[in-house]
Structure formats: C-alpha cells, structure tokens
C-alpha cells in the first residue's frame, strides 16, 4: 500500500522548491562567485565602518533551489533580464566599477530584486562581485554603502511595502537574507543586518502572514538559508521566533496543509541542529511502501 505524505499538488510544489534536499555547508568551505578568483575572497575595505575589515562571502547552499556558485547556468547573474542599457551598466560595474555611478547601480539592483524574486535569490553574489571589483580597483566602498542605505530605506518602509505588494515584500526578505548570507566582516555575518533580518522573519511568522503560503514558504526558505547563522548571532531571538512558529503551527484555522507541513519541517530541521535527518527526509519527501 502506498502512503503519500504530501498531496499530489503540494508534493509537486515541494519538490520544485527542493525542500530538504541538502545539509549544512561544510565548515570553512568558501566558494568564489563566478568571475571572481578564489584569491579575491579576502579584500580590505577602508572607511569608518569597515576599516581593517575583511569581507568574505558566505557560500551558497545547494538545497531548496539554491545552487552552488560556479554553475555555468548562473554565469550571467541574470543580467539578461534587464533592458540593454541596464545590462551594459551592470556589466561595466562588474568589470570597471570606477566608470559608472555605483549608487545608481545599487538602486537598480534593489529595484529589480523587489520585482523579480528569482533575481532576488541571486543578487547577493552580483553585489559581492561588484564590491570586490571596486575594492580591487579603487579601495573604496561606494557601492556597499549605497546598497546598505537602500536596504535600510526599504526596511523602514517594510509594512507599507507588504501592504502595497505581497510579492515585493517576499522579494525584499529574500534579497536582504541573500545579502546577509553573502557579505561578511572578519569572517562574521554583518551585525548591522542581524536585527533587520530577524524583524523581517518575525513579521513572516505573524498569524496574518502564516495564512499566506507565499510568506510561509519565504519564512521557511530563509530559515534554511540563514537560520543557523542568525541563531549564533542572537540565540534568544531565534527562540522567540520559533515560539511564534510553533504557535502558528497550532492555529485552529487559516493554515493550509502545505503551510502546516512547511512549519513542521522547519521546526524539526532546527531541532536536529539545522540539518535534515534521513528519517525526516524520508517522511516528508518520499513515498513510503507499507
């Protein structure tokens, strides 16, 4: 007798997202972004906020739709999704950052990330590559400052963004988590982004958000990506976040079967040390023959 853990429709959705198909990245693993030599993984960025700091990207996880950096299909950073003029602007920023207005480049990337969730998942490595190129060429961090300033502006208006466009809100959370995952200072996540990222995830764990599968999926996906890092930076807030998630899982109404499945999976994922156990993988993502 066949037992299906997921409904056929939900099973297809979950498999498309790649739920639970990988484990934590190996400790100390560092993979250079496309077009950036591995020796360029450490660059000193001058300036008041980053004097003496080493910026290192966090490698991309190879599960839940996040592909390891270096795959040929991702070499163009999705630049082809822009119009011809913007494509040229971004290509120049990657090769010769001093020749373009880097604040404009930062705004272009953020604007497009708020409209295109696929791009928002990959924009972090483009930003990292531009930061590295600028540092190597001029020893400056104009692009990085512009990027963080724009992220702060959108963060301050996050409730208005959510009310205006649920997709834009989900894209923003994806983007800021992507940036948090990539950019490091002295091999540590950027402290300036810890609380904003937490605040976004807390918003996704509110009852009105848990009733929307798009927000539940975003919450779970980002916890798979940056949850372990966030917990190391502030374990108390992670405990508080999972109280909300557990309470949400027990909501009597308003939660779809897929949302319940996703929340249960992330609860067990954290309980297992931010990894998927073979038993959990078999239960959630396989057909079992009894």
Structure, explained:
- The chain is mainly α and 290 residues long.
- It has 2 domains: 78-185, Serine Threonine Protein Phosphatase 5, Tetratricopeptide repeat (Alpha Horseshoe); 188-289, Serine Threonine Protein Phosphatase 5, Tetratricopeptide repeat, CATH 1.25.40.
- The chain is 59% helix and 6% strand.
- A hairpin with a 2-residue loop joins strand 4 (184-185) and strand 5.
- Helix 5 runs antiparallel to helix 6 and helix 8 packs antiparallel against helix 9.
- It is elongated.
- Interacts with EIF4G1, EIF4G2 and SLBP; probably tethered by SLBP to the 3'-end of mRNAs ending with the histone stem-loop, it also interacts with EIF4G1 which is bound to their 5'-end.
- This is MIF4G domain-containing protein.
Short note summarizing the structure:
This protein has 290 residues and is mainly alpha-helical. It has helices at 8-17, 84-95, 102-115, 117-120, 123-138, 142-156, 158-164, 166-182, 191-204, 207-210, 213-233, 235-249, 257-271, 278-285; strands at 2-4, 43-45, 53-55, 184-185, 188-189, 287-289.
Largest sheet properties:
2 strands, antiparallel
Q: Beta-strand percentage?
A: 5-15%
Elements, N to C (H/E) = EHEEHHHHHHHEEHHHHHHE
Q: Unreliable runs, pLDDT <50, ≥5 residues?
A: 1-75
- Determine the CATH topology of the largest domain: Serine Threonine Protein Phosphatase 5, Tetratricopeptide repeat
Strand arrangement within the widest β-sheet reads: 1-6
First-last Cα distance? 5 Å
Please tally the helical runs, counting DSSP H or I stretches of 4 or more residues: 14
Give the radius of gyration.
Answer: 19 Å
Q: Kindly provide the name of the CATH class of the largest domain.
A: Mainly Alpha
The chain-level structural class is: mainly alpha
**Overall helicity:** 55-70%
**How would you sum up the global shape?**
elongated
Number of domains: 2
Number of strands: 6
Query: What's the pLDDT, averaged over the residues?
Result: 76
| CATH architecture label of the largest domain | Alpha Horseshoe
């Amino acid at each position: 007798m066949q037992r299906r853990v997921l409904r056929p429709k939900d099973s297809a959705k979950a498999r498309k997202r790649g739920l639970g198909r990988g484990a934590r990245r190996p400790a100390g693993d560092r993979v250079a972004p496309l077009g950036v030599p591995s020796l360029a993984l450490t660059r000193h960025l001058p300036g008041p906020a980053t004097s003496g700091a080493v910026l290192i990207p966090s490698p991309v996880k190879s599960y839940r739709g996040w592909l390891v950096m270096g795959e040929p299909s991702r070499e163009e950073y999705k630049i082809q999704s822009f119009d011809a003029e913007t494509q040229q602007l971004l290509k120049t920023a990657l090769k010769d950052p001093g020749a373009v207005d880097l604040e404009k480049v930062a705004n272009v990337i953020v604007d497009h990330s708020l409209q295109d969730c696929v791009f928002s998942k990959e924009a972090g490595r483009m930003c990292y590559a531009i930061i590295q190129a600028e540092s190597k060429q001029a020893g400056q961090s104009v692009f990085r400052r512009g990027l963080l300033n724009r992220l702060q502006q959108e963060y301050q208006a996050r409730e208005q963004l959510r009310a205006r466009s649920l997709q834009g809100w989900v894209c923003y959370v994806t983007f800021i988590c992507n940036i948090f995952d990539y950019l490091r200072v002295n091999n540590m996540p950027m402290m300036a982004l810890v609380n904003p990222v937490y605040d976004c995830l807390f918003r996704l764990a509110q009852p009105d958000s848990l009733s929307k599968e798009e927000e539940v999926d975003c919450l779970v996906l980002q916890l798979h990506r940056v949850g372990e890092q966030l917990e190391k930076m502030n374990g108390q807030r992670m405990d508080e976040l999972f109280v909300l998630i557990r309470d949400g899982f027990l909501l009597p109404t308003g939660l779809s079967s897929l949302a319940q499945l996703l929340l249960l999976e992330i609860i067990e994922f954290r309980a297992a040390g931010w990894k998927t156990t073979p038993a959990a993988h078999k239960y959630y993502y396989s057909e079992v023959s009894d």
